[in-house]
Amino acid sequence: SLERCNDSYLARPDADLPVCFQQTVLVWVPLGFFWILAPWQLLPMCKSKAKKSSLTILYIIKQVLTALLVLAAVAELALTSVDDAEQGGVPAVLYTNPSLYIATWMMVLLIHEARRFCLPRDSGVLFCFLTLSLLCGILPFQSLVRKALQEPISDLPRFILFFISYGLQLLLFLRHHIGCNLCSLSLGPGWVGRLICSKESPTNYHGMSLSHRMVYKGYRKPLEIEDVWELKDKDKTKALYTAFEKNMKTEMKKARTKLEKRERKRRRREGDPDHVNGMSKAQSQDILVQEGLRPSQGYPRGWLLNTLAKTFKQNLLLAVAFKVVHDALVFVSPSLLIAFVSDEDSFAWQGYLYAILLFLTALVQSICLQQHFSLCFQLGINVRASLIAAIYKKSLTMSGATRKESTVGETGESHVSWMPRELGPSVLAGIKNMKNKDERMKIMTEILNGIKILKLFAWEPSFEKRVTDIRARELKNLVNFGYLQSVSVFVFTCAPSLVSLASFGVYVLVDENNILDAQKAFTAISLFNVLRFPLAMLPMVISSMVQTNVSTVRLERYLSGGDLDTSAIHQNHIAGSFSEATFAWEQDGNAAIREAITSHSGSLAYVPQQAWIQNQVIKACALLPDLKLLPAGDQTEIGEKGINLSGGQKQRVSLARAVYSDADIYILDDPLSAVDAHVAKYLFEQVLGPKGLLQKKTRILVTHSISFLPEVDNIVVLAGGAVSEHGSYNTLLANKGAFSQFLNLYGNQEEDVSEEKTSPKKLKGQKLIEKETVETGRVKFSMYVRYLRAVGWCLSFWIVMGYVGQNVAYVGSNLWLSDWTDDSVRYLNQTYPTHLRDLRIGVYGALGVAQAVFLLFATMLSVWGSMQASRIMHQQLLSNILRVPMSFFDTTPIGRIVNRFAKDIFTVDETIPMSFRSWLSCFMGIISTLVVICLATPFFAIVIVPLGIFYYFVLRFYISTSRQLRRLDSVTRSPIYSHFGETVSGLSVIRAYGHQERFLKHNEIIMDINQKSVYSWIISNRWLAIRLEFVGSLVVFFSALLAVIAKSTLEGGIVGLSVSSALNVTQTLNWLVRTSSELETNIVAVERVHEYMKVKNEAPWVTKNRPPRGWPSRGEIQFIDYKVRYRPELDLVLQGITCNIGSTEKIGVVGRTGAGKSSLTNCLFRVLEAAGGKIIIDDVDIATIGLHDLRNNLTIIPQDPVLFTGTLRMNLDPFDQYSDEEVWKALELAHLKTYVQGLPEGLLHLVSEGGENLSVGQRQLVCLARALLRKAKILILDEATAAVDLETDNLIQTTIRSEFADCTVLTIAHRLHTIMDSNRVMVLHAGQIVEFDSPEELLKKQGVFSGMAKDAGITSAESTAL
């Protein structure tokens, strides 16, 4: 029988494979696979230095089973030799197979031993070999069983041995599968990461079983970041960036060379190469360098995509390969089955074989597709990591010119612009919108940074309007873009229907003998369905490419911008010298020189004037009294921008940091300005002076105070940006130059500094910034409801109806088609009636068009609805954030709020509408497909139930994990923004100390934490997809199987319809879950936005109870037993103050740190609400009126001069309440008129972010102009002159004395001389008034005030007269 290997075996109803085929091919294929790969599995044994793992029960079971298999093979060999002896001449194959098996199982024993040297214990090769062996064994298995049922068994011993050996293999296979799961159970999360990524396992089956562990864990409890796998070293930011940087440098160099060639050609074309526009070559080079950053001019282009392709090419090629295999198999499926259904004479077994083949094809397809997706997503996050690292590193090294071009907001934006990439092709709305979004984010960042000023001046409505206007433009573009998209979706939906209509129509019309039959129609339909998906994605892909292009251009410009030029610095024995150096900076001279030195860090320390405090726990010294005040001493957490330290404390921390750095050169930018006299004196003696800690170092001190000048070695006097004279103190006095005149003018006002700003937050605890909350568990259903309510219930209903209509038309057109194909049987050998043919084509076409029309209707409505929702939600969020009390901003990092306005609003705008639409169409699609299959084969309804249950559980299991991982992604992304923002704002300090490395490292760490959560999310997605596609494959299998069983009763048309629908369902099922989880993931944005919508507001801006017109007319202030605390859980900062301040009185407020001076101003403006008592201004209790009524009628010149991006005029008068004449008048009084007239744009001069293009003094004068313009009856000066040189200080003081003579003025004093001419001085101590009288009286009293005056060198009130 072995020789009869021919076709006769298959051409009969009970077909079987020839025995010779079973005993050769089916045995040798798995063995061949095994022996090709097995030897490599022994390597760990030879080279491993690791010690062997201990024996486990699982290991012993494994070895026992393998030993039994060896024995079975030996027994079979013995049997053969006995047979040979008895009968003589047995087929050779009976000797070779057992011998091969003996060798194979011995090898398996060795491999098991070798695996004890590595993790994981189980070998992927063995797993594949056993799978293959069992699959090939199924055929002989069924052959033997069928034979045994038909006739007595001829060769009983071999029959028994086959089943024993098959059973043992099955047990070994199961042991491998379970072992893999158990090994991951016994290890911690750190191991799991290494396992899933283990290089030893060629398949992904370990990965899958381990992601199973994680999904299971995520189902039982909300995942924490600690549960997430660690990344492999090669996936960490550092490794990715190293490779990226190497390629970036070479590619950028090539691009630069090309650019230079182009520039040279351009110049040659334009004329004489050496003198462009009458400039020398060198000058034109400079200009080129400056202009080189403008988009119109050249910057190297096209290098970024090349760099990325080079860095990640392996990943890309693999992904493409998997996709090609998947797409090739797509064409195999449908043609198999319909061939069987339409062939009347085919045997039943062929049908079953086709059904099984369909199932296997579907499985292989889904594995390839998932590998492809996995690789693509990994590529996405790796690209993102490399780019963010590159942007971050660039921000640390870029030159001033480049930095000027990109504000914090924009840099943050380029930092963000690659963020949404990992969501795959999410549709982003056009380039115009990017500009609007940038602008909106820029203003939002500024609003949040300057929120205190907005509150004090009651300017929130003006800025709210600015943001709302930009938002309106943004939404208008979004809607137009959405409509455009709806039309493209309409076109692409029409396409498959029209294509099928055209094909069938042409086929039928060309020749009247052509009758459409099931095989042709449904093979075609299946192929058109294959087209449906790519066509639907095409518009998204195009818009994503446009978007990527925009981002690429921005990134290329940013990353190829100029770096700091360190070549201009020479290190030699002179501490520091300038030779013919010119620095351009839009600021005053000292600031420019200081910037120039610190940009090029040697070993130098730098104390900036506006102390930059990084959000780390400070371990500072020279701050002992302050550390006693702080709740947790030197472990107290410092808020963003040092929000919980007073000005003086920040300055001292900054100084301490410099002293620690032990540098050779110290650059001190007026560090004594923010501290009071005795502290300044102390710091000078202890740290800066000739006997201080830094006596052996070179110190360059920029100062506005005169009292320390006699003790310095050399004085450089700057005037108008140039050195006017330099020499020692005595030399300059003797010279009788500008310096000695200056001294004569101001010398008698010796730095009579009083006390610094109070430390507002004496916190109970050490934590200031709460950890960002991560919502856990299912997204509340109310979030969906809230979103739909924002869309509008009526609209929502009609949108759903549109989708229902589309699917009814879809099912209708398919049923019509199946009926049409049955005509081929009805009119067999007859003429097909023309009218019927036309009717068939007409109705089919109409139904196709109806689908598209319904869809167009639904998408148009949903665009409109989602725009409504976006507008409402952003409006509510914005208006709420502007109405929350100040304490919220003290404890919430700005990055966190910005994240709501950037990422979450983006999601609400663009991602959620997409997710909702996809979800609806997937859901309806699946329902319509199941309806069609049930119509064809009603039995299928029975199969739906178990499949549905399995599907539901997989879904519930997975969604909880996925959702939590997305939330972790959101939360771990905030620190990346925050750290980035802090870095950019504290750049000069980081550079001056040379700490770039530390910050880069920190950035890598927080990036990796974020990568980790995204990576796990991707793996869990694949876990899900494999299982879901398995459900899909089962649907295909059962619909095919039922079609085969019911073959005799079914028309070809309906079978074709049923199977082609089933083939379609696999992907749709997968998409339904993807879209469900994506929707749930994205609806988290609504949850996060809502979280900030419900933050408690401060008191209303305007109440029914309005103050009388012209209030306050007298400016009398009464404090009646007034108490206040910062937050409910904290102690009182003002302990019951009672005092009366008369009309037009000038009051000075003094007191040491923490006395409550600033709290006093906060109370007048109701930034803090009373904990008891009240404040009455002109007979009105301020607690009874609206905040804006109060704040509009008081004026403050705050300590930090905050300016906003926009024109100078906008900074003075955001509501356009005053005429130009009034504005110029105010500028004149503030001594800024000449400066502003000198600017080309005058009042429309653009102020850059944070007022960076004005010096600190000029900013302070702008604040003075604001006060002059408003001219309220009550003026509060909050240490307004702390950071200003004596001349500016003098200007401000004189102006205030003359212009505010008829106002009540409260001055929170900083230098005692500013308040010596007050009517009365209020001395605060620990929140109580200890002295309150005229300066003369207080000096006589020998109390707290006279002690302070003595420190400041003031003896009598007269000595300070100007």
Automatic annotation (TrEMBL):
How is this protein positioned relative to the membrane?
Multi-pass membrane protein
**Location(s) in or outside the cell:** Endomembrane system
Transmembrane residue ranges:
25-43, 55-80, 92-112, 124-144, 156-174, 316-341, 347-369, 481-509, 521-542, 787-805, 841-864, 916-933, 939-959, 1024-1046
Q: Which GO terms describe its molecular function?
A: ABC-type glutathione S-conjugate transporter activity; ATP binding; ATP hydrolysis activity
Q: Where is this region: Disordered?
A: 254-279
Q: Where is the ABC transporter domain?
A: 484-745, 1117-1351
Where is the ABC transmembrane type-1 domain positioned along the sequence?
432-547, 797-1081
Write down the EC number: 7.6.2.3
Q: Which reaction does it catalyse?
A: leukotriene C4(in) + ATP + H2O = leukotriene C4(out) + ADP + phosphate + H(+)
| The keyword Protein transport appears for this protein | no
Q: Which Pfam families match?
A: ABC_membrane, ABC_tran, TMD0_ABC
- Keyword line: ATP-binding, Membrane, Nucleotide-binding, Repeat, Translocase, Transmembrane, Transmembrane helix, Transport
Query: What does the entry list under GO cellular component?
Result: apical plasma membrane; endomembrane system
Q: Matching PANTHER family, A to Z?
A: ATP-BINDING CASSETTE SUB-FAMILY C, ATP-BINDING CASSETTE SUB-FAMILY C MEMBER 2
Q: Which family does it belong to?
A: Belongs to the ABC transporter superfamily. ABCC family. Conjugate transporter (TC 3.A.1.208) subfamily.
List the protein's name: ABC-type glutathione-S-conjugate transporter
